[in-house]
Structures are given as structure tokens and as C-alpha cells.
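Data availability excerpt. The first of two example chains:
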Amino acid sequence: MIETIECRYEILRHIRYAQPVGRRALAVLLNMSARVLRSQVEFLREAALVNFSALGMEVSAAGEALLPDLTDYVKALRGIAAQEDILAARLGLKRVLILPGNADCDETSKRELGRAAANLLGEYLTGDKVVAVSGGSMMAAVADQMTVRAEATTVVPARGGLGDRLEYQANSVAAVMAQHIGGSYRQLYVPDSVSEETLAGILAEDEQIKAVVNLLKRADVVVHGVGEMYKMARRRSLKEDMLRDLQERGAVGEALGQYCALDGRVVYVTNSVGLLLHDLNKISLVIAVAGGASKAEAILSVMRAGQQHILVTDE
């Protein structure tokens, strides 16, 4: 019965994020035989948890209402709740939220992480709040899943721009999040990896950037992702000699433009305007969001490098 429950849970999760979706496409997403899938979705249809149409399957209102409780139930079956407590104690965090799945091989798990982090963040958006967000695909998922209304909230990018896909840049993430919650946002148009002299000149001459930086310094909440050192170095187009230097220094993770070793040492900082890991000590709430088995060492390195309060990750 446990295997059946988990199977139906995975089917519901994937339908919700791919809907409307046909059986053949869903079978590919789940790596499941069409015969097994057919019998399970038929059960879900008869239980009024899934609706069928000419466009494909969609999760019904009853299915949507069931999924949060079903997620908690699957976590209990797998012993995840106990793992959350153990990991929070080991890392010195107030809370760890672990979701079923592995974001490395399942896009649905990444979107579930985004939804969970968005719901968690929404609990704290009361009154006049300043929220700083980093860039990346994970943060884009968080912004996209925001549903709470918080008109008094101002969202700002935690760092200057990164030469990456536009929708993954911190400026874009801040704008999307603000639009979803009905709040306001500010932009920080400063590229990564410029010289310290250039940065000093920008801050001295550009009043708008200076105002955003001052706003960042009094942020109430920071939500950031965690990257693997090698992937982030490639995204920032670091030269091969710098990449080798990072490897020799033991860098395994990256957050907010800083590269960290497994023991929490910050071994390299990219030149950009915005928050650094040591600035997190002054922030009331810091939420890190990262999933996938490949990020295990990166997550540990960042958790040890600067104050964190909550980690949202996956199994």
C-alpha cells in the first residue's frame, strides 16, 4: 500500500506541474510504463482527484486540496520529518524543510521546492518588509510560485547582474516576485566582475544605485540559492587559471557571488554591488533554497560560511 500511495502521489505532483498533460507524455516524465500509469490515473479519476479533457489530464480542486496533506504523509512514510530535525540540529539552523524527490533528475521536484519556499516566505510577509532575492533558476521558481498578497513589501536584488539568461538574473527575479505579491521592486544594474575602482566610481556617481544598496542594508528577509562551484564559475566566464585556483583552494559551493570551501571558508569573492555572506548576520531571516544530490557539498559549504536560518531542500 505504501508503494501505491507514493506512486499516486508522484503522478498527482507531475500532473499538477505539466497540466494539461496526456498519458503518453506523463509516462515519459515519470519513466513509467503506459499500462501501470493507465490503471493509476483511472483510479485517480474515479476518486475525483484528476479531471480528463480533450487537452489532457488536470488535477481537480479536490486533488489540489489533498496534495499538501499527502506530501506530509509521504514525508512521514519516508522518515523525512526526523531527517529535518537532525539536519537542523547538525547545521545549527532554526528549521530545515525537506521535500521528496531529487531536483537533479526531476524538474517537478525543483518546482515543488519553489512552491514550498514561496509558501514559507509568504508567512513572513506582513507589514512593511524589504526582501532581498538572489538570481538563478531556483529563485526564479520561487518567484513564480508566490501567491500571497503583500502590497507593502519591497523586493530588491541581493546582488548586481550576472551574465546569464535574463529570467534568471536577480533583477528579473525581484520584478517577477513583486508582481506576484502586488508589491514594489527596485533594480540593481551593476555587472559582475568589474574592477573595484569601477565599482567605487559607480557608487559615488549613481544616486539610484546608492539608494538600492542602502535599501539592501536594511533588508528584513534574504532568500538565496546555492550553486556548485564549477557551474557558477562557468556561468561567470571565469578563466581556466582562476578555475584551477578555486579548485586548489577547495571551493565547492557559491552563494551571493562568494565561493566557499567545505569547511565554510570564503575563498573568493566576485566584484559586485550587493550583499555578502557576512552581511547575513544582520538579517532577521535568511532562507536558502537548493536541491539535488549534486549540490550536497555546495549546500554544506554555504551553510557553514554565513548565518542562515532556514534551509529548503529535497530528499
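And the second chain:
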Amino acid sequence: MIPIEEARTYVMDRCRPQPAVGTDVADALGLVTSADVIANESLPPFANTAMDGFAVRSADLDTVPVRLEVIETIAAGHNPTREVGLGQASRIMTGAPIPDGADAIVMVEKTSVDGDVVTIEAQVEPGNHIRPAGDDVKEGDLVFPAGTRLSAGHLGVLCSLGFQKIDTFPRLRVGVISTGDELVDDGGVLEPGQIRDSNRRTLLSLLSEDAFLPVDLGLVADNELAIEEALSQGAQDCDAVITSGGVSMGDFDYVKAVLDRIGDMRWMQIAIKPAKPLAFGTIGGTPIFGLPGNPVSSMVSYELFARAGLRSMMGFREPIRPIIKGVAAKSMRRRADGKIHYVRVIAEQENGTTVVYPVSGQGSHMLASMARSNSLAVLPDGEGCEAGEQVDVLLLD
């Protein structure tokens, strides 16, 4: 068995960021910027009011209450047409430009109106409730550095600045293939020896959650020619391909035979539980991840290796999810076997501390317990931990 660090380094060294592309801002959610984003205009582009109220000359309010002539109404989206002079005010709506002559806004709650006259009942300082031009971002500012993962807020800023396209690392097309005569996915009655294909849907869903573009390469029967065609076509059409099953040392599997023939593969036994077996390599330069067939092992292997490698290809600065510290709510016993154990747990915040509760059913075939978990407790080789002891936690949610 090899350490997880060695296996992951092998994968990450062969999963380099893809060449940058121009991406429509509307399609950039979850992507990573490949270059610094510099503001080409200011935000806001003009001084505007933060309140509904009246634009005034603050010097006119030395003594209050004071009556001022209302010379116009300025709605958002419309320019002022008159300068505010001595003894005058303009009614103004939130977001509207500040008229010339005015240096403050009095909120409507501190005024009363009688025809074309407004009575101001409070003094204000110059700049009151005025958002200056460039208050948020100034033209020429560094808005987001290269390596920024674009969230909804980032996209809102880009739209506010008028960006239509942005330079990013491309969203990966990742193919998922299932093979085996024993697998069915038609929802019908199971025949003797048949099992339902869950790994393909699980992996496609994980890819979607992680902002990749999942490509369903289908369920292929145990036929070397069909498997070779599916893998070769997938490697040609996708940026990476994931398979599950047939990667253990003792397996003789059609996928294994095909990958050995058409790919440059390394078959690894890693010192972890679950997800000990992993195959990784390339077909024509396209990364191929061969994950274990047991459902939980497949998900854990995806998290530890495939997700990290794919995120590296998409330009993430920290492609590997960080480990945090938690406290075990109950004991998690294990025996020394030379492996790191990843135990399914539910992590909850209690009085500022991450507390983890192990779930029942830790077998690598027990997918329901994985679905009930939101984290993995990382137990180093040894006897495990007792209730109340600190434990490393890998948050999945």
C-alpha cells in the first residue's frame, strides 16, 4: 500500500490547469478567473442618493425648521435638469443622480410637503446620504485577482461594471461510464444476479454539485470492443473520464484490460479505508479516474482524488478540501491496520465547536449511511478516538 499523499501527488501532477478561455459572464458561475479583473469604469458611475428625500444645500439648514422651494422631482434613471440654488430643494428618489448645487440629502421622514414647498425639520452635514462616484469600485481598481472562484456576488459586480465576458479556466466536461452485465438502470424487476447501477448517477450528481459539466457516457455491457469504443470516444469528447469498479488487485475486468491496452495507467492500492484501490492515468492526454465499485468507496475516492484533480484542472488555488478540527461526540474505535480510516459522521456546530456524531453502518456498500452523513472523520492508524477527544474532520457539505 502507498500513502495517500503519494497517490494524490501523482494525480495532481498530471491534472494541470487547462488553457484559459473567454467566458460569458452569464455562464461563469463557479469558474475561476485566469487573469486579474480590472475595473474599466467606476461603481457607482455617478454620485447618487442612498435615500428617498430631498437634495439640499446643507448651508440652508443652519436654522430648522426651514421652508424650501421644490424645483423638480428626480427619479432613478433620470438626470436632474435644474441646479439647486439658495433656498431651493429637489425631490429625489433612491439611486437618482445628485443635482448640481446640492451637497446633502434629507430623508423624506424628516420633511413635510405643502404644494411646492418642503419644510425641513433636521440639520444635516455635507455628504449626508450621498453615495460618491466610485464609492464601491474606482476605475482602474483591481476588482478580483486571478484565481478567484466566481460566486453570485462576483457576477453581480461584473455586470454592474459592464463586463459581458471574463477570462476564466474552462468548465470541465467530465464523462462517467458504468460497465457490467450485472448492472441495470431501467427500474424493472431485478433478475437473479442483477444489481441497480447507482454509481453513475451518484458521480454525475457530484460533478454537477462541484460546478463541472457532467456527461453521461452510459451503461456499457461486458464487451471489450464496446468498452474500448466508449472509453476512447469519452476521452476524445471530454476533458476527463471517470469509471467505477474493476480496479482491485485481484480483479480481472474488461475495463482493466482495455485501459491497460489503450491507456497509460497506474493501478494503486492506497493506505486508506474505504477506497483503497485507485486507477489513474491518461488516454491520449485525457485524465482517466478508475474508482472502486463499492458505492461508498466510489464517493470517497471521488472526494479524495477525482474532485481534487479536476478542480486543479479548473484553476482552483486550493483544489483539495481543507481539514478542520472537531470533537467526537461518541467514541470511534478501530484497529491498527496501516490505513487512515474515513468514518461517516454528521458534523454540527454546538457552542462554537464542531461536534461529530458517527452514523451507523460503516460498510463500503452502505450507501444510505453515506447519504445521511455530511462529513468524514479522519482517523489515523491506531485505536481510534474516545468521546470528547479532538478529531480531524473533512466537511463534505
